[in-house]
Design a protein that fits this description.
415 residues; three-stranded antiparallel sheet; Cytochrome p450; six-stranded mixed sheet; alpha+beta; disordered N terminus; binds protoporphyrin IX containing FE
């Protein structure tokens, strides 16, 4: 069947059930109901990625690439399976294709009324357009200090990585006074508690280079913004870093030549300035294989048209980013770790790949997230060689579909 203008596929009952079981339900449940509060606006919780590539490929073949409407228990989802529709997904203004957010969560209105203003604060404070954040110097000092705990035991697993990253995140977002406040991190996911007051208290005295320090200086002509309140989202977003760092180091453990090159970069003088292009490429490639946000979800706020077919406002549109960026029909060596594919600046604009999304919804913390993750990896690699203990990865064979951070264990030996 060829998909042309005027076509939207509609999955049959069996196709919908298979899709819902493997994909939609876990994503929607994860995104809207349960674990969402654990991470910030724009981030699904770093839970189990679902691998439904075979189902998606079958749907794409059956419907000739046209967007497919699939039914799930929570409603109907318009699934984007072809590059031409991926292009439209990013081209639609965010007023029309709105980022889905959790009903009832404090950020539930983030993408309606004040979205543009909040986004301006995010962009300014996180320095979205700059590869090296203006507070890079103090941030790298914090990361170097905290990273000593990463290598202390000769082995590395999730609990230690989370402890270290959470401490660093509190210092970067709220300042050194918050370093010890483990309870604050634990309470971040809960609403209607005293976390907001605690964050405001730290913010009042935070050093100027911290994120809240920068937010304090942000102009608010409307008088209706709460830039300091956004600190909660920024803190939560750092929760993506421990798993990302462990996966990157595990992949480097299985690719010794890449590891040696990354370690050499970590020892160069420029490393102190946070550039680390090779390590950043390794982090991006890890995210291509194991994205922190495997599905991008939007809710339409007006009627939209896809290949000549109109869909009413309120349609849920799902872009399965993981499927696209690991699609062997369109991405060379799709299941292999090839950091070099990110060497050219155009790679970050390639819409087949979306570890940080694209266009108006693109992650404003992209560069800061890359800086932090690459700098922590650099701290480990500077003095240590990393060996993956588990899971075992075959550097030549296709990499596994999922890599649960909880299951990763690394051994570190002195260089
Ligand atoms: C390091 C790993 C990170 C990854 C992989 C990541 C990924 C993403 C993605 C894919 C989105 C867009 C979601 C969508 O389009 O539905 C997003 C949004 C967002 N991210 Fe990140 N992010 C990371 C780190 C950070 C950090 C460190 C911060 C802040 C400190 C941050 C703040 C945000 C915010 C505020 C949004 C919402 C943007 C909006 O509403 O327009 N992210 N992130």
């Amino acid at each position: 069947m060829t998909a042309g203008a005027g076509r939207t596929g509609r999955a049959g009952r069996a196709g919908s059930v298979r899709f819902a079981a493997a994909h939609t339900l876990p994503v929607l449940v994860r995104g809207f109901v349960s674990a969402r509060p654990r991470t910030g606006r724009g981030h699904a919780a770093p839970g189990r990625p679902r691998w439904s590539a075979a189902t998606l490929r079958a749907l794409r073949a059956r419907h000739g690439g046209a967007p497919v409407l699939v039914r799930g228990l929570t409603g109907t989802v318009l699934l984007i399976l072809d590059p031409q529709d991926v292009r439209q997904f990013y081209a639609e203004p965010v007023d029309t294709l709105a980022l889905a957010s959790a009903p009832g969560a404090p950020d539930g209105c983030a993408h309606a009324g004040l979205r543009a203003e909040r986004r301006a604060v995010d962009d300014a404070v996180l320095a979205a357009g700059l590869s090296v954040h203006p507070s890079c110097g103090p941030f790298l000092s914090v990361l170097a200090e905290e990273a000593r705990r990463l290598t202390a035991g000769g082995s590395l697993e999730l609990a230690r990585a989370r402890h270290v990253v959470a401490r660093a995140a509190r210092r970067i977002v709220l300042g050194d006074a918050a370093a010890e406040d483990v309870e604050l991190t634990r309470r971040l996911g809960r609403f209607h508690d005293k976390t907001g007051a605690r964050i405001a208290a730290y913010a009042a005295d935070a050093e100027p280079h911290t994120l809240v320090g920068r937010a304090r200086r942000h102009a608010d002509p409307t008088g209706s913004l709460d830039p300091v309140g956004q600190a909660r989202q920024w803190l939560s977003a750092f929760d993506l870093v421990p798993g990302l760092m462990l996966r990157t180091l595990l992949l480097l453990g299985a690719h010794p030549a890449e590891q040696s090159a990354a370690a050499a970069e970590a020892r160069e003088a420029d490393a102190a300035k946070g550039a680390l292009p090779r390590l950043r490429a390794c982090v991006r490639e890890t995210l291509r294989l194991y994205p922190a946000v495997p599905d991008l979800i939007r809710i339409t706020r007006a009627e939209t048209e896809w290949r000549g077919v109109r869909h009413p406002a309120g349609t849920c549109v799902l872009l399965p980013a993981l499927f696209h960026q690991r699609d062997p029909e369109r991405v060379p060596a799709a299941h292999v770790f090839v950091p070099g594919r990110w060497a050219s600046p155009e790679a970050a604009r390639d819409i087949r790949m979306a570890p940080f999304s694209h266009a108006e919804g693109r992650c404003p913390g992209e560069q800061l997230g890359l800086l932090v993750t690459a700098a922590l990896c650099a701290e480990v690699l500077r003095g240590h060689r990393v060996h993956g203990v588990r899971p075992a990865l075959d550097p030549l064979g296709p990499l596994p579909a999922a890599l649960e951070p909880q299951g990763i264990r690394l051994r570190l030996t002195r260089r």
